Amino acid sequence: MEILFKTFCHKGTKAQSQFLFYFTLSLSKCLLRWTGVKLATSVSFFSILFFLFSSLSYSQEKDTIKVHQIDEVLISAVRVNKKTPVTFSNLDKKEIATRNLGQDIPILMNFLPSVVTTSDAGNGFGYTGIRVRGSDATRVNVTINGIPYNDSESHGTFWVNMPDFASSVESLQLQRGVGTSTNGSGAFGASLNMLTDSYSKESSGEISNAFGSFNSRKHTVKFSSGLMNTEMNAAQGFELAGRLSNLKSDGYIDRASSDLKSYFLQGTFVGKTTLIKALAFGGTEKTYQSWNGIDAVTLNDDRTFNSAGIFTDEFGVTRFYDNETDNYQQDHYQLHWNEKIAANWSTNFAIHYTKGKGYYENYKEDADFSDYNLTPVATETSTDLIRQKWLDNDFFGTTFSANYKKDKLDFIFGGSWNKYQGDHFGKVIWARFASTSELGDRYYDDYANKTDATFFAKANYQVSNKISLFGDLQYRNVNYEANGVQADLVNDTFNFFNPKAGLNYDFAKNSTLYFSVAVANREPNRTDYESGNTKSEQLTDYELGWRFENEKLKFNSNIYYMAYKNQLILTGNLDDVGNPIRSNSEKSYRLGLEIDATVAFSKKVFLRPNVTLSANKNVDLNVLGTNVGNKQIAYSPSFIAGNIVVYKPLKEFTISLLSKFVGEQYMNNIESKEAKLNDYFVNDLNVSYEINPKSVFKSIVFNGLVNNILDKKYISNGYMYDVYPYYYPQAGINFLIGMNLNF
């Protein structure tokens, strides 16, 4: 295969390169049919783009101007480096690879500073969540190649819709606090930007398989054509690459099964001053619902019990509906055009489109006919029925930026315009007792439209050898229209101005001190409107940090103070469809100290500790008309620590011990005893061994992961039903084993 790719990609004619393109495209089609992913639109998308790229690639002339690496140009508008006074952590493909055995991206990020993760199914498959500095996922801005990923209405990130996306991530950066200006909803806890796979100069292929506890398995196939060019210039040409993945797991919780499929296709054109990247990626998911949690009594008797789908049949026998599932498909399309227009100027322009459609299905006992617009034919007023709640949405728009870099100045300006259109509707597909209404009719039919426009300008200026200044101005306009929420109709417009400023001071060799002040504003989400909380919220984030780096030690420490006005805090309660309910806290703050380091004791032993100490308080909070004083903000532990010990006895063999401690936290804002989640300390063992054969394969890599090796019984998340706590137990000791064949 490698010889074939090299022959056609680097020594062939234009016709041969086109043959290879269609050969790989046909192979992709076959594999897509095998996995069951519907991708007709993606195939057409790539067919059109190929002709665009091929016409460009054979008209380019050789040039000595260096083309920016795609990871520098593509998301330069939202990513930072150590010259920017922002607190951040990076995670690259190499660090992810040894643990990438099917678990979601939040689980792979678990050992970054101030991060707390959870899994509904208990083992990292299916629905997973992340909190940073006590802020939940709706307040963590997520972008993919600079394109917003957070759902426009809920502000949430649903990783289950992109299973195995980690296999197509080149690197990610987590900026804690407000960070720099980004696209999409404001960052109130952190911003996470991900860069997908860069292009490869040489052809390659990869087959990965993993198996483990709870019948978990992951099957992944990847390929790259390498840069195809007839002029023997390895630095220019067109590359086609892709991935197909199939993941399944029964989950730790009863019936918390996942059946996940995903794809990733990209075409990259590299010219003398041009980089063009076209992507189509997405996936389908079918997960048995496991978001109900369990009460304290059940937790002691049966930790894995799942009440979802429970009903009593006509004979009085307790049963579980076998299709109490969540079903969703999401497809993303992106086109990025990066151009170096002069020695000091580069630009990026992107257009994108996301299509999402799916439903979740419930068996409902003794449901009132009137609640579902059903008219009974007899005297019954209620019936058992099966309902589906649907979401059908479209998200599209553009992002753009220009970068001027010369001598002491690094200046970027740009913006984005994005539009969301969503339909919410419900259907009854079966009822025990007959009605005069037609099954399948919509018993509710709501809509939502949201427009989000952003403009920003930011700059780093090197005042002297030791001092650099940073400035960042952003204007954001948001319009949200929806029915089916508070007062049945919403039509709100928000205008936000978000300034940021800071400085870096290199006060000694290898040591940098930084300070920044950043303002962020956010609009309410759909659930906030439904709960009557319609005020926007504001955050002013102060960051003071110190960075030190030499050959054996990388050390980062920072103090942050995040002052909120009308912060929408989690109350611990859920609405009737499982969405977290929030309420405005007029005044609140988060004050903390973060420390992380990488210590090289020798060439074989590394240590990567991190710790967060924080105070997270509501000030004079009113709950149901009562002032409860200064209480801890819900889901905000005061102590979080992580550590990774890496031992490499051989170049090809790595053993890592990964540890995570999360302090006690509360599931409401009045610190009631019933709402307390106990602290927990969990350890994982990761092993990786690489073989480099002399023929056929470039490498064979064996990876093993033993999660929770001490078999700790712990709970990472929960909620309150009135005054009663409900919990999401996590799995005890479990394992995953994988093998990668690279050729």
Structural overview:
The termini are close together. The chain is built from 8 helices and 37 strands. It has a 22-stranded antiparallel β-barrel. A 5-stranded mixed beta sheet has the order 1-6-7-4-5. The protein is mainly β.
CATH homologous superfamily descriptor:
TonB-dependent receptor, beta-barrel domain
> Strand content of the residues, in percent?
over 45%
What is the averaged pLDDT score? 88
Largest sheet: 22 strands, antiparallel, barrel
Return the CATH architecture: Beta Barrel
Determine the fraction of residues in helical runs and give it as a percent range. under 10%
- Give the N-to-C terminal Cα separation: 8 Å
Question: Structural class of the secondary structure composition?
Answer: mainly beta
Q: How many individual helices? A: 8
The radius of gyration computed from the alpha-carbon positions, rounded to a whole number of angstroms, is 26 Å
CATH class: Mainly Beta
Shape estimate: globular
Residue windows where pLDDT falls under 50 for at least 5 positions: 1-32, 34-68
Total number of strands = 37
Number of discrete domains: 1
